[in-house]
Amino acid sequence: MAGKAISWAPDRMEKALGLLALIMLACIVTAVLRGSADWSKLPAVVWFHLATICLPLALTPVLMWSPRGTVRHRTLGYVWVASMAATAIDSFWIRSGDGRLGPIHILSTVTLLLLVLLLVKARRHQVSGHRTTARGLVIGSLLIAGFFTFPFNRLLGRWLLG
């Protein structure tokens, strides 16, 4: 008895996640442009963090909306993973005012673990598991974590909404 074939075409959720990633990217770019008066006050690690997160936000719709299993998808996927890993790792040098790690750093650790799982699933051609892990990373590590950079008087929130 053969299992159900897995479609490689983007479904509604992947179309929505790609669109939400573009909206998040637009919010970040708008916030950064509006915050130009404060640019010189930011440490390099924050600039690095912003740069490394913008790349996967831009690549998410490309990866989710384009054909899968291609050399292009694989190559861009490795770039996406490397940029996500860099973002998660550099977050450990961005700390609260008292110098301590915060709850967001738990997400950074989980992100690093899930990136390994994403690669393992892809290398083993476990399409369903790879797809589920990719969706989870986009939802949790890009969109939910990204959303929480805007409220609570945080930098991007002040720049965008202030």
What string gives the helices and strands in order? HHHHHH
Alpha carbon gyration radius = 17 Å
Count of discrete structural domains? 1
Helical proportion, percent range: 55-70%
Q: How far is the first residue's CA from the last residue's CA?
A: 60 Å
**Low-pLDDT ranges:** none
Structural class: mainly alpha
Per DSSP E runs of 2 or more residues, the count of β-strands stands at 0
| Biggest sheet descriptor | none
How does this model look, in words?
The protein is mostly helical and 162 residues long. It has one domain. It is built from six helices and no strands. The chain has helices spanning 12-34, 44-65, 71-90, 104-123, 127-147, 155-161. Helix 1 (12-34) runs antiparallel to helix 2 (44-65) and helix 3 (71-90) packs antiparallel against helix 4 (104-123).
Keywords:
single chain; 162 residues; 6 helices; 0% strand; 70% helix
What can be said about this structure in brief?
The protein is mostly helical and 162 residues long. It has helices spanning 12-34, 44-65, 71-90, 104-123, 127-147, 155-161.
Strand-helix topology:
Elements (H helix, E strand, L loop, with lengths): L11 H23 L9 H22 L5 H20 L13 H20 L3 H21 L7 H7 L1
Helix pairs in contact: 1-2, 1-5, 1-6, 2-3, 3-4, 4-5
